[in-house]
Task: structure prediction
Amino acid sequence: MKNVMALTLFSLLLISCGERKREVVEQPSAKLKALIIDGQNNHYIWPKTSMMMKDYLEQTDLFTVDVERMDSVWLGIKYNQTRPEAYKMFIEKYPLKDKEYKISDSPIKTSDFSFDFTKYDVIISNLGAESPLWPEKTREAFENYMNNGGGFVVIHAANNAWGEWDEFNKMIGLGAWGGRDEKTGPYVYYNDAGELVKDASEGACGSHGPEYQFQLTTRAPEHPIMKGLPQKWLHTQDELYERMRGPFENVTILATAFADVEKNAPPWDSSVKGLGQNVAQLMAINYGKGRVFHSTLGHFDYSMECIGFITTLQRGAEWAATGSVTQEIPADFPTENATKSKSWNNLLNSIRSAY
Result:
């Protein structure tokens, strides 16, 4: 009887230990820490798009997301005067909680911004054209963060900033405007034969036509960000960036779009035509031990509501942070001939306590 009781107690102990062991194994891993930096962007909608991207990343259940505003705040330009909202509506509707900042009606040329980037797995830039160059110590800190394995995501006009910062140009591969020229690097595109061309000819850096829907072509189908995406998919109304320049070192072009000679010609400058080539829209860059996901998409809120934008942002941020992607492709991803969007839930964002 004693032996039976001892065996029973031993069995219960094993079961108990097994249950405790399973409990430990099944504990969820810590979430990735992401930081969105904003505060100066030529697109006046940026206070809203920062919160949209914060929400999109948190929807994956992989990230906790903070937003940090630069010391200098410029709302940008209201390009489309037919939009009904007031110029300051976005900064008033989407403030940072318990943060005070001065708002300028013109770009601020200097910055004292400093930050400990090492607290985060990935940094997302929602800055834009005319963002003041960070102080030297901040630039060095960011370069060290990236060299030591940090993650970086560059969205749309963020590639307009800091053409004079050589290491930033290496991080993003290709940039637009920002004082860049042929000394910064070549134009890079795929020609009709599918050959990658590096064109060192002189000319402007950065161009786009009016907003329209355009098709993206996957160029690196086995890359973790792109694996499982359609070979072609239609993106919603957006600006198609072309004529970007840069060092183009350690860059994988993930997807391109065709910059049509007429359709992508800027109507405000009759001397410029579309490039007539397949130009990069999504890129992955290795910088030191760090990883960069660069997306030219996302001009306005409706552009960021495209499920193609949302999916590539989510997957690109995970890859930049970890080097791999665990997310599935949504069933409603855009197809070759049909774009798919979903309205961003402002109410959900308005009740979030993190900002």
